[in-house]
Amino acid sequence: MDTLLLSRIQFGANISFHILFPTITIALGWVLLYFKLRFNFSNDMKWMEAYRFWVKVFALSFAMGVVSGITMSFQFGTNWPGFMETVGNIAGPLLAYEVLTAFFLEAVFLGIMLFGFSRVPGWLHTLATFLVAFGTTMSAFWILVLNSWMHTPAGFEMRDGVAHATDWFAIIFNPSMPYRLAHMLLASGLTVAFLIAGLSAFRWLIGDRSAGVRTTLRTGLTLGAMLIPVQIFMGDLHGLNTLEYQPQKVAAMEGNWETGPNVPLLLFAIPDEEARANRFEVAIPNGASLILTHDPDGVVPGLNDFVAEDGTALHPPVAPVFYSFRIMVGTGMAMLLLSWAAVGLMIYKRRGVDGLPKPLLWGLVPMAFSGWVATLAGWYTTEIGRQPWLVQGVMTTEQAVADVPAPMVASTLIAYLVVYALLLTAYIGVLFYLARKATKGEPIRPRVPPSGEAIVAAE
Amino acid sequence: MYLFGDPTVWLPVTFAALMGFSILIYVILDGFDLGVGVLFPFADGAEKDRMIASIGPFWDANETWLVLAIGLLLVAFPTAHGAILTALYLPVAVMLIGLILRGVAFEFRAKAPAPHKRAWNTAFFTGSLMTSLSQGFMLGLYIMGLQYTWATVAFAGVTAVFLTVGYSFIGATWLIIKTDEALQLKAVQWAKGGIWGIVLGLSAISLASPLVSPRIFDKWFSFPEAILLAPMPLMSAALIALLWLALKRLPTRDDSFAWFPFAASIVLFTLAFFGLAYSFYPYVVPEQLTIYEAASAPESLFIILIGTCFVLPTILGYTALAYTVFRGKATELRYD
To answer: What are phi and psi of A4, to 5 degrees?
Structure first.
C-alpha cells in the first residue's frame, strides 16, 4: 500500500477512535449537570447516585478523548503537512480558538468537578460541572466549523495557491455548519441516551432495583425517545443542504448513477463502480426523489455527471458511502423503534420502568453502543463522500499527504491499532465492571472532610 | 494590525514568544507529572496512590499546554510545523503512544478490577517513560538541526536520558511539597539522585549547541555578548549549589522550605529555556527556516492574537484557582 492510503487509514483510525469519546462527553456533561441540578433542588439521593455513577464514566471517557485528541493535533504535521500549508490561514485560527476557549476550560474545571466536591462550595462545584459541559460543547462547535468549512468552503480567496481569509463571519457560518453542528450534537445526545439506557438496563437485568438505576433508565429512554425524531428531521435538512452543495455525495449515498426524475429509494443494493450500475436492488419507487425534493417527479443528481472526460471519477467511491449511510439510517430506525416502544409501554402500563418486558431490556443492552455505530457510519458517509477532495474544490487529499516512507506509516499504524484495540476492550470491560460493582451495592459514602491520613485513589 | 509597525515582523515575534511561553509552561507543568510517573517503580503501593493523588487534579490541564504549543506552531508557523513533525515522525509516534498509555492509566488503575491495577501501574510508568525519553530525543535532534546521522542520534539519546532524569528531578521536588513523612524523605533522596542529571544535561546541551553551529557559537562567545550573558550560567550554577544545600537539610521539622527545590527547578528550567531560545532565534527550523519566513498571513495571526489577549489571562486565572483549590499536602482523591 502507498503512503497516501496508509496515511488515510491511519488518520481514519485515529479520528474514529477519538470521536467515540467526545460523542459521549459532549452530551454526558449536560446530563451530569441535569443530575446535579435535580439533586440541588430536590435533595433526593437518587440524583446523587446517578451523578456519582455517571461521573466515573465521564472521567474515563474524558481521559480517552484527551489522549486520542492530542494524537490528532500532531497528525496534521506528521502526515498531512500540505493541509496547513494551503489552508492554514483559515484552519489555524479555528483550531487555536478551540484550544483557547474549550480545551483549557474543560481540563482545568474537570479537576474541580471530579475531586473538588468536598473542597469547594456547592455552587462552585455546580459551576465547574457547567463549565466542563460548556467547554466540551465549545470544542465541538469550533471543530465542526472547521470540518464544515472543508465541505462547504466560504469567505476566502486563493493567492499564490494559499487560502487567505476575507470574511470570518462567512467562514464560521459557512453553509453546512448549522446543519452539521446540530446533527452532531443530537448524535451525541442520542449516544449518551442509549449508553445510559443500555448500561442501566444491564444493571436492572442483573438485579439492581435501586432508585438510582430506575432514575437513569427512565432518563436515558426518555431522552432517546425525545431526541430521535428531532435527529431524523435534522438529518433530512442536512441531506438537503448536502444536495445543494455536494450533489455527488448525495448521488453516492443514494447509489444513483443517472441524473433524472422518479429516482427510487434503494433499501439495499450492491453498487458496482466498474459496471457503473447496481446489482440486487431492493427499492421503493420514487422514494429518493420524494425524500430529496419532496416531489415524486423531482430530479436527483446522478454519479455519471461527475466523471472527467478521460474517464477518471470526480465523485467519491460509491460503495463505502452507500453502505455507511444505510448503516446510519438503519441504526437510527432501531433507536426510534426501541425507545418509543419503551416509553410507550411505560406510559401505557403506568408502572414506570417496572412495566418494561425483559426482552426489551435485553435489546437495550447491545444498543448501549448504537450511538457509536450510527455516529461512525455518519462520519464515514460525509468524509468519504467528500473524496477525492480534502477541502471541497480547493485541494485534494493527495495534495496534502506527507512524503513519509510507507513502511514508517505502516509501522506506526499497526502500533496505534494495537493500542486502540486494547484500550477499547478495557474501556467497555470497565463500563460493565462498574455497572456490576454498582449493582452489588457499592455503599454511597457519607460526605466527610478530607483527611490527610487515608490515601486511596478515586474509584 | 499596524499598532507596532510592520505586522510581518511583530506578529511572528509575538507568536514565537507565545509559543515559547507555552512550551516552557508545558515542560515545567507536565515535566513534574511525567517525572512522578518515571519515579513510580521506586514507590510501594500506598505511596503510588498518594503520588497519583498529588498530580490527579492537574495532569489533564498540564498536557493541554502541549496542545497549545503544538497548536501555535501549527497555526502560526504552518510550514515549520510540517517540516519539524515529518522529520520527527517516529519519536512523535512514540511520544503519542506514551501519552495515551499514561493518560488512560490514571483512570483505569482506579476503576478497573483490583487484579488489573498492577498492569495499569506499569502502563502509567511505561507511558511516562516513553513520553519523557521521546521528548528528550526530539530536543536533542532539534539542537542537532533535525539531521539523522550516527552522531546526532547518539547525542539525542543522551539528551533523552538527561531530560528524563530532569523530569524525575522536578517530579521529586513536587512530591517534596505535596507529601510528608516517609514518602517525603524518599522524594528528597530521589531529588538528590536526579540533580546530577540536571547538571550533566545542561552541560551537554551548553557544550554541544555552539559546537554544532558556528552561528550559535558566535552568539555566545563574541564580545560583549559573552559578558552580558555570563549571569545566566553563573545563576544556574549558584542555584544548583543552593539546591544541593537545601536538599541536604530537607525535610525540615516544620516543613518550611519544602517549596524551595520546586521553585528553584522552575527557575533552572526557565534559564535553560531562555538559553536555548537565545541560541535559536530567529530560526524555528534550525538553520533552515526563520519565524518570519514560516509565519502565517498577518490577518490570520491578528485574529488569533485578539482572542489570545482575552483568553490567556483567563486561563492563567482559573489554572491558579485549580492549584489553590488543591493546595497543601496531597490527600485521598475521591469523587464525593
So the answer is: -60, -50
Q: Which of A20, A80, A87, A115 to mutate to test the interface with B (most CBs of B within 10 A)?
A: A115
- Any domain includes A237: yes
Whether A85 and B79 lie within 8 Å, measured CB to CB: yes
- What secondary structure does DSSP assign to B3-17, as a single string? TTS-HHHHHHHHHHH
CA A426, distance to chain mean position in Å, is: 20
Q: Does A354 map to a domain?
A: yes
Which domain range does residue A68 map to? 3-247+317-380+414-439
User: Is A69 touching B (CB cutoff 8 A)?
Assistant: yes
pLDDT at A442: 61
Q: Kindly state the helix (H) or strand (E) to which residue A158 belongs, with its residue range.
A: strand A156-159
User: Total domain count for chain A?
Assistant: 1
- Reported ipTM: 0.85
Considering the domain boundaries, does residue A321 fall inside one?
Answer: yes
Model confidence at A450, pLDDT cuts 50, 70, 90, reads very low
Residue A303 in domain: no
State whether residue B331 sits within 8 Å of chain A by CB. yes
User: Which chain B positions have a beta carbon within 8 Å of A119's beta carbon?
Assistant: 325-326
Smallest CA–CA distance, residue B58 to chain A, in Å, is 7
- With a CB cutoff of 8 Å and minimum separation 6, the contacts of A270 are A278, A279, A280, A319
Query: pLDDT by residue (tens digit) across A377-412?
Result: 999 999 999 988 999 988 989 888 888 888 889 999
CA-CA-CA-CA dihedral for B120, B121, B124, B125, to nearest 10: -140
Q: CB B67 to CB A56 under 8 A? A: no
Q: Phi and psi dihedrals of A363, rounded to 5? A: -65, -30
Q: How far apart are CA B285 and CA B281, in angstroms?
A: 10
Residue B22 above 50 pLDDT?
A: yes
